[in-house]
Write a structure and sequence with these properties.
148 residues, alpha+beta, 4 helices, globular, binds coenzyme A
Length: 148
């Protein structure tokens, strides 16, 4: 049985393994993921566990702006291992993150996904997300010396 729950620090190694599968090998280290789980209060991480192994994860980020009277939530990552797809795990992970967003006062949610990612688009629409007229643009800045 697949258990859907909030991540704990003990999930760092398994999350690093899943993150490599989703975002590419070496996207982040286990240590950095552990640190993020420990200290990033604006991030929500839900996991799908099959015994001691994780088979999926979903991350949400809480954002707040002085220009808005409400808190927003961005669902930034959603991944379900190939052999576990098509059984409602993705939908349950989204519900887990949404539930936590709600508890933390978030009232508007945002998700972006690839134009070609029809599986994700269908899933998000079936969870109540609506298409917008927004255009998403990205930019990389040159790295400068930075210490947290
Ligand atoms: C997208 C993804 C998370 C879906 O996870 P999943 O556990 O298979 O999804 P669910 O079983 O909860 O599906 C729920 C609904 O989504 C839709 N859906 C899921 N997979 C689909 C597919 N391949 N094609 C069309 N619709 C699909 C269906 O409406 C489905 O409802 P139904 O089963 O009642 O028909 C999974 O395919 C995945 O991890 N893909 C790779 C990573 C990715 O693309 N992440 C999203 C990037 S933002």
């Amino acid at each position: 049985m697949i258990d859907i729950r909030l991540a704990t620090i003990k999930d760092a190694a398994e999350l690093a393994r899943l993150n490599d599968l989703f975002n590419g090998e070496g996207s982040n280290t286990e240590r950095a993921i552990e640190e993020s789980l420990r200290s990033n209060e604006n991030e929500i991480v839900c996991v799908a566990a099959d015994g001691n192994s994780l088979v999926g994860h979903c991350c949400g980020q809480i954002t707040r702006s002085m220009t808005r009277a409400y808190k927003s939530g961005d669902i930034t990552d959603l991944y379900v291992g190939e052999e576990y797809r098509g059984h409602g795990v993705g939908r349950r992970l989204i519900a887990c993150v949404e539930n936590e967003f709600q508890k933390r006062g978030v009232s508007h949610l945002h998700i972006s996904t690839g134009r070609e990612n029809l599986a994700a688009q269908t899933l998000y629409r079936s969870c109540g997300y609506e298409d917008t007229s927004e255009y998403i643009l990205d930019k990389d800045l040159p790295k400068v010396e930075y210490k947290e």
